[in-house]
Amino acid sequence: MTAIYNYVLNLADNTLILGQRLSEWCGIGPFLEEDLALTNTALDIIGQAQMLLKLAVELKGEGTVDELAFIRDQHQFKNVILVEQSNGDYAQTMLRQYMMDVYHVHLYSVLSSSKQQQLAAIAEKSLKEVLYHKERSELWIKRMASGTDESQQRLQKALNFLWHYHHELFENSDEINELVQQGIAAKPDELHNKWEAEVKTLIASLPLEIPVTGWKATGGRAGHHSEYLGKILCEMQFLQRAYPNCEW
Amino acid sequence: MKCSFYSGLIQIVSGDLQTSKTSEVLKILQQVTDPEIPVLSLQDLGVIRQVDVDDDHVIVTISPTYSGCPAMDIMEQDIIDILEKQGKENGLPNKVKVKTQLSPAWTTEWITEKGKKELLKYGIMPPSKKGEIMCPQCKSKKIELLSQFGSTACKALYRCKDCLEPFDYFKCH
After folding, report:
1. Chain B closest CA to A41's CA: distance in Å?
2. Each residue of A139-195: pLDDT tens digit?
3. Strands B95-100 and B57-62, how do they pair?
4. ipTM of the shown complex
5. CA dihedral sign of residues A182, A184, A188, A189
6. Do you find a cis peptide bond into B127, omega within 30 degrees of 0?
7. Domain ranges of chain B
């Protein structure tokens, strides 16, 4: 029970924090159409977070979706550190989005046939959405990489910064292995291979280079986050903290 | 007793007194429309998947269009409100529940032909599997994509190159 709860909560928190980050662009997008597009993407992702959090609540048999989103403190969040990174410029936002879109496409494809039926249904529903998101973020990567010198440089800078954060998406543990054995979870190694094959193929076709260092971000799943998460929660949780149980 | 819909078709599973109650529910629900597209009924949109009536409850099962669509909550409340208001005089139980069903995932293929015609008349290009998109105003096929998302998550924004009007396209999903 704890294993699947933790697994679902990791997926839920990844989407919740990513959706919250994307929402920060609302009203200040580079141009109107892009503003609409990115906030609609955020809406889909927050919708996925709601479904996953609801499943987490059902698995635990106590609490509510709102409590999980608005009352937990940062050490209780299980999202990967990649999704809490600042939006930076549009290159950084869209590269993080592309990295997460490719991950979600492969993840949900596998989870659509998970033996946990509710998880399978959520994956089936979400897959249709993330395929469209990926189409969009991939176009942006191509456009920025082969656009002007400045757009290429900004994208390369984003790649140098974000690349070291992707490994955490594919971390393995005894808990996850157990769920893989039961046909519930996706195998992290296989996901990693599919992700790398796809992302590296795209990057190789563009004037971009993957940075080489041995450094890898880790710790998010265990609740060890970067300084950004606290700031995100300050904003996201403000209303429920200041006015507990407030509804409108 | 069950009444299910697939691809816009209504299948009445059993034919007794309960079935007539189910039809009554469906008749009432025809008045409920998508809050963002008021010409499209929820049945034509394909979100109402099943209606069950027992001694105490009317249970309506819906499939959400997009996971984060804020219109879903309003649709749910509209279903409850109208059935609570009009159900009693039509001999239906006054307790109403709305259940959400994620799988099979909602698809634009569940939008009925009538629904597609209503969309076009309203100025929204209905989903086209063949990608044959035309301007709902002047019917020109010379169009361009402005943004992959329009005013809501379910639509994309296009512009007609002939009459220069921008228009929403209900994306295939």
Report:
1. 8
2. 999 999 999 999 999 999 999 999 999 999 999 999 999 999 999 999 999 999 999
3. parallel
4. 0.82
5. positive
6. no
7. 3-109, 123-170
Mutate to test the interface with B, among A15, A25, A36, A112 (most CBs of B within 10 A): A36
**B67 vs A33, A36, A48: nearest CB:** A48
Q: What is the pTM of this model?
A: 0.91
- Is A44 within 8 Å of B67 when comparing Cβ atoms? yes
Nearest Cα to Cα of residue B150 among B140, B158, B142, B139: B158
Residues of B in contact with A128 (CB under 8 A): 105, 107, 173
Whether residue A125 and residue B171 make contact (CB cut-off 8 A), yes or no, is no
Taking the C-alpha atoms of residue A81 and residue A225, their distance in angstroms, rounded to an integer, is 6
* Tokens coding A154: 């900004």
Query: Taking a C-beta distance cutoff of 8 angstroms, is the pair B93, B53 a contact?
Result: yes
Instruction: Report the pLDDT value the prediction gives residue B88, as an integer from 0 to 100.
Output: 87
Whether domain A2-242 has CATH 1.20.1260.10: the reply is yes
| Residue B117 amino acid letter | K
Report the amino acid identity of residue A25: W
Q: What span, in angstroms and rounded, lies between the C-alpha atoms of B148 and B135?
A: 16
Tokens of A194: 């599919």
Cβ-count burial of A117 within 10 angstroms (0-12 exposed, 13-18 middle, 19+ buried)? exposed
Q: Please state the φ and ψ torsions of residue A210, each to the nearest 5 degrees.
A: -75, 130
Quick one: B3-109 is in which CATH superfamily?
Fe-S cluster assembly (FSCA) (3.30.300.130)
- Tell me which chain B residues have a C-beta less than 8 angstroms from the C-beta of A43: 66, 68-70, 153
Residue of A47, A118, A120 with shortest CB distance to B66 = A47
Residues 6+ apart with CB under 8 A from B15: none
Residue A3 pLDDT > 50: yes
Helix, strand or coil, per DSSP, at residue B143? strand
Residues 31-50 (A) with a CB less than 8 A from some CB of B: 33-34, 36-37, 40-48, 50
Q: In 3D, which of A159, A33, A186 has the Cα closest to residue A85?
A: A159
| The pLDDT value given to residue B9 | 42
Residues of B in contact with A48 (CB under 8 A): 67-68
Minimal Cα distance from B105: which residue of A? A125
